[in-house]
Amino acid sequence: MRIGLYPGTFDPITLGHTDIIQRAMALVDRLVIGVAINRDKGPLFDLEERVAMVRAECDQIARRTGGEIHVHPFENLLIDCARDVGATVIVRGLRAVADFEYEFQMVGMNRALDASIETVFLMADARRQAIASKLVKEIARLGGDVSKFVTPDVRIALTGKLG
């Protein structure tokens, strides 16, 4: 069984994330969504809220695709998380060339830690390339409409969190 790990903070999960999740499902038998705790980023949503949002979105994707998706919170090294869940592939989404430099460095470090775990990059769909959780939160914080960037449930959660 080919197991993939798609890690991220998912604060909140966006249509860009779900696009990558749906396409990654075609590459693996089981996809684990690793929700990073990452206290340094100071997330808007706490871990339980992010896991619940990711789980709700992934449950819908799994029903549509018939695929197997698991949600797994983690705080350790990405490569250790991959080992913990039995992943042989790490899935990363790229929006722009700027993403590639950081991701390139991460791949090098991860390969040095465990060369048996491969990293696969999926380019964001052209309609989703501008979507970033940070920007979605900023738009919502300033009262803008985020319905083009997140699902209705996530929009409601954002509105509830930001007042």
Please tag this protein with its features.
alpha/beta, Rossmann fold, five-stranded parallel beta sheet, 45% helix, pantetheine-phosphate adenylyltransferase activity, PPAT, transferase, EC 2.7.7.3, coenzyme a biosynthesis
Q: How does this model look, in words?
A:
The chain has six helices and five strands; from the N terminus they run E-H-E-H-E-H-E-H-E-H-H. The chain is of the alpha/beta class. Strand 1, helix 1 and strand 2 form a beta-alpha-beta unit. It has a single domain, classed as Rossmann fold (3-Layer(aba) Sandwich). The model has no long low-confidence stretch (mean pLDDT 93). It has a five-stranded parallel beta sheet with strand order 3-2-1-4-5, with helices on both faces.
In short:
The chain has 163 residues and is of the alpha/beta class. 45% of the residues lie in helices and 20% in strands. It catalyses: (R)-4'-phosphopantetheine + ATP + H(+) = 3'-dephospho-CoA + diphosphate.
Any chance you could write out the topology, listing elements then pairs?
Layout: E1 3-8, H1 15-24, E2 30-36, H2 47-65, E3 68-74, H3 78-85, E4 89-94, H4 97-113, E5 118-123, H5 133-141, H6 152-162
Parallel strand pairs: 1-2, 1-4, 2-3, 4-5
Distance between the termini: 44 Å
Question: H/E series, N to C?
Answer: EHEHEHEHEHH
- Tell me the fraction of residues in β-strands, as a range: 15-25%
Instruction: Return Rg in Å.
Output: 15 Å
- State the low-pLDDT regions, or none: none
Structural class: alpha/beta
Tally of domains:
1
Function: Reversibly transfers an adenylyl group from ATP to 4'-phosphopantetheine, yielding dephospho-CoA (dPCoA) and pyrophosphate.
Enzyme class: transferase
Keywords: ATP-binding, Coenzyme A biosynthesis, Cytoplasm, Magnesium, Nucleotide-binding, Nucleotidyltransferase, Transferase
GO molecular function: ATP binding; pantetheine-phosphate adenylyltransferase activity
